[in-house]
Amino acid sequence: MINKSKSFLLTTLLAFNAPLHAVAVPAKPETSLAADRVEGIASKQPGALPLSITPQVIIDPEDLVERLKTYDQQLAIAPEDAAAREGRLLVISRLGAPASAIEEAKQYPNISSEVVQRLYEDQTALAIRWSEKVYHSTPGGEYPAYDHVIYLGEETWKRYPLSERSRFDLVRALNNRKRRAEAVALYETLQRDKLEIPGYVHEAAGSAYLAEKKPELSVRSYNAALIANPNSFDANMGLFYALADMSDYKGAKQHIETFSAKPMDPQEKFESATAAIMEMAYENRLGVAQSRLIALQNEAPNSQLLHLALAKTYLWRGWPRRAMQELDFITQRESYNLQANTAMVVADAAMGDYRSSAARLSQLQASTPDDTDVKNLTRAQAVRDMNELTLIVSGTRSKENLGNGRGFIVDTKVKGHPINFQMRPFVHEYFERGINRNDSADYRRLGAGIDYVIPSLGEVEGEIQQEFFMHPKTSIAVQGKFDLNDYWKYSIRLDSDPVDVPLEARRARVSGRLAAIGAAYRASELFAVHADFSQLNMSDHNIRRDGLIGGTAKLVEGPRYKGTLGLDVSLSTNSLANASYYNPKKVRAAQISFANEWINYQRYDRSFGQQLIFSLGRSAEEGFRTGTIGGIGYEQRVSLSDVVALSYSFGYVRKIYSGVLSKGPEANLSLNWKF
């Protein structure tokens, strides 16, 4: 019987793929009570135990089995020996069979309540360990085991209200089950009660705080966990992500580089090295991160971790199709990979395939509704499907206004809920006022239309417009933007009565028809070029053609500051001379700009940033004047939540209008509100 018991208990214990001390245990080792029982027997019967059995913490399963044999020998001599019986039960529990020990304890009423409590606590700890180590092929497959652990912990706590260990283990179990708020609430009661909290509980709390988007508290808990166990892989990795979420990139970089340099398990070494590379991506050094990930991939071409990291980097660089290739590689080998599937939801949405994105998300919601990424994606989809108000108010100095070019524009657009995923109705109001010293003119139009997103191709918008001016007129506008791949974008616009017609021309009963095309090449977030051409055929037989070539190059790309150089060259021509409005035969302009952008605060959906732009150039109006143009502009951008974003700017501009220098202040306001 003893040999069979030894074989079973050893098999059970060795099934744990980690050292015993990694089990959710209290501050003192679980074998301490068993050692006390051995010491008690030895003091009463010094010759009853071999000398090799001494009161110390023993975690070797062979030693535990020998200890069990010793208790059995003692009980064979004295069946009523309570100390030997209690020691036997504790060793059986330590060997991985607390449920059997509990059942045996029920047969002996004289077993102390302290020992029985320990057995129930061991049962919960063992269940936690098994639930964390068992592999599940499908996401959410682990939930029933986690629910069972929580049940055991809560029942033990009810049975023993003073059990600190039950509360400790419940924090860990609740966090595992993604019941983060409950885990945090229980953890904070432990802190208020000033208990000596074990490291694994701090670690679970750090994870829960991070999922609840409270990185400062997460950092505090992870640091406490690392005091107890400096080499904990999960605590070290969790601290890195918490620091990154706080935008403490310097601290995150220093921590992950120090940790990844330590000797550790090869798989953990590889994961920490990958995280160290991803830290560069968090700092917006996406090109560097991509290069290093690809270099590391040469060493491990089939690593799903690297393919996932590359996919995320490609998404951040604006390349959803390349990201999807990496994600397909993963799901072809592991179709239920949760991280890959959540990233696919994002990639589908980035390509405008909202139907596919919603279908993927629906599957994840059914299997893993409590997963943090799934919850975030559910929220993102809900926000995307809300009504959306966009309001732009701008004070202008341009050739589109009266006299000296002063005026303002209010452009308001409200999109409704999606119809059948890809289509959204909208209403649109445009108001413009042009002002000179002795005169002003107002122009207003209302419109309604449909915006349709073609999956993986682009977006088409059609609008019926009614203008309210000197001579009310109904018109139609159609525009499209197309992304044939991750780099090239094309646009087209047709309007039977565009707002591009100057107000002075409208007052002279001149209308127009516009056709415009454009192309843009975006190599990455660092470099982009574009070319646009439009032709405005006006009712007085004037044909106005405008061409623009421009580009931007990001010279500085960091987590806090970005510096972007821009260049625009334009040419505008008019076929008709001596019109009632400003229409020089030819206008040539070239302007260089430099945009300084600071991100002063960023925390998930809340952010605050500033931008300072300098521009300088020359404008030549054939038959009028050649002069210097440019200006300076300052802007603040505020994101109050995932549904409200606001920006406002003011500056000083210098332009040439009808041969006359026009200079002075400008101001702009933009609001985006989803409701």
UniProtKB/TrEMBL annotation:
<dbReference type="InterPro" id="IPR011990">
    <property type="entry name" value="TPR-like_helical_dom_sf"/>
</dbReference>
<dbReference type="Pfam" id="PF21197">
    <property type="entry name" value="PgaA_barrel"/>
</dbReference>
<dbReference type="InterPro" id="IPR049003">
    <property type="entry name" value="PgaA_barrel"/>
</dbReference>
<feature type="domain" description="PgaA membrane beta barrel">
    <location>
        <begin position="386"/>
        <end position="675"/>
    </location>
</feature>
<protein>
    <submittedName>
        <fullName>Biofilm PGA synthesis protein PgaA</fullName>
    </submittedName>
</protein>
<keyword id="KW-0732">Signal</keyword>
<feature type="signal peptide">
    <location>
        <begin position="1"/>
        <end position="24"/>
    </location>
</feature>
